[in-house]
């Protein structure tokens, strides 16, 4: 089932990208310093690079995945939009999984970066309730915290648009996608989150917008 969700989200993103203008491909996203083209280059990196090539790139980046990832996104973001779009559309069924993250990690990667693009452009991106709930559960897991999560201890998180809640403590309520963005270090619009814990969540340190 989760492979089906991943494929559906990649097709949804491909449909959104297909309708963008040249100016929108150069527009900023929720990932600081990355335009749409850079985020798409990052999303498609595991489709376009073999494991040995990525390993070699990691060595050149002195063991920093962040440095390697940013370099590839900046360089490959200069590829023609049509080529980047084709890489998304042609790899909906690709079996890539992030190391140690499983397919839950792959789904989270695609959904969050899709929202980076869509929300940054002010466009809708359809993420059905079940996949969105799975993403929220992945983000709030102990394993994900060490990668990119914002610590949510002492907070009761609850989505207002689907049946998902987690944790105990001060309440934080909001749309599922706004919770997901806040929990992965993204900026959310003023008033997107409510409850006594909303300010606490916004002020907590995390790894920033993950790449």
Written account of the structure:
The protein contains twelve helices and four strands, in the order H-H-H-H-H-H-H-H-H-H-E-E-E-H-E-H. By secondary structure, it is α+β, with helices and mostly antiparallel strands. The protein has two domains: 2-95, no CATH class; 130-202, Nonspecific Lipid-transfer Protein, Chain A (2-Layer Sandwich). The radius of gyration is 17 Å and the shape is globular.
List keywords for this structure.
single chain; 211 residues; alpha+beta; Nonspecific Lipid-transfer Protein, Chain A; 2 domains; 4 strands; globular
The chain-level structural class is: alpha+beta
Report helical residue fraction: 40-55%
Overall structural domain count: 2
Oligomeric assembly: single chain
N→C terminal distance: 25 Å
The tally of helices reads: 12
User: What amount of the residues lies in strands?
Assistant: 5-15%
**Largest beta-sheet details:** 4 strands, mixed
- Which residue ranges are poorly predicted, with pLDDT under 50 across at least 5 consecutive positions? none
- Envelope shape: globular
| Gyration radius, in Å | 17 Å
Strand order of the largest sheet: 2-1-3-4
Would you summarize the structure shown here?
With 211 residues, the chain is α+β, with helices and mostly antiparallel strands. It is 53% helix and 7% strand.
Question: What's the SSE blueprint?
Answer:
Blueprint: H1 2-18, H2 22-25, H3 36-43, H4 45-48, H5 51-60, H6 65-76, H7 81-89, H8 102-121, H9 129-139, H10 142-145, E1 155-159, E2 165-166, E3 170-174, H11 176-183, E4 193-194, H12 198-202
Parallel strand pairs: 1-3
Antiparallel strand pairs: 1-2, 3-4
């Amino acid at each position: 089932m989760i492979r089906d969700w991943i494929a559906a989200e990649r097709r949804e993103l491909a449909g959104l990208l297909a309708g963008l203008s040249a100016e929108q491909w150069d527009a900023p996203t929720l990932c600081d310093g990355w335009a749409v083209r850079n985020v798409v280059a990052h999303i498609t990196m595991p489709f376009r690079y073999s494991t040995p090539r990525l390993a070699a790139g990691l060595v050149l980046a002195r063991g920093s995945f962040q440095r390697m990832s940013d370099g590839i996104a900046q360089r490959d973001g200069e590829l023609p939009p049509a080529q980047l779009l084709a890489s998304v559309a042609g790899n909906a069924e690709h079996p890539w999984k992030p190391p140690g993250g499983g397919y839950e990690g792959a789904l989270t990667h695609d959904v969050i970066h899709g929202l980076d693009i869509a929300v940054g452009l002010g466009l809708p991106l359809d993420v059905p309730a079940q996949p969105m709930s799975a993403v929220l559960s992945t983000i709030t897991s102990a394993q994900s915290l060490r990668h990119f999560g914002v610590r949510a201890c002492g907070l009761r998180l609850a989505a207002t648009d689907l049946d998902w809640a987690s944790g105990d403590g001060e309440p934080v309520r909001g749309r599922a996608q706004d919770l997901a963005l806040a929990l992965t270090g993204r900026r959310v619009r003023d008033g997107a989150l409510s409850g006594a814990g909303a300010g606490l969540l916004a002020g907590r340190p995390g790894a920033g917008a993950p790449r």
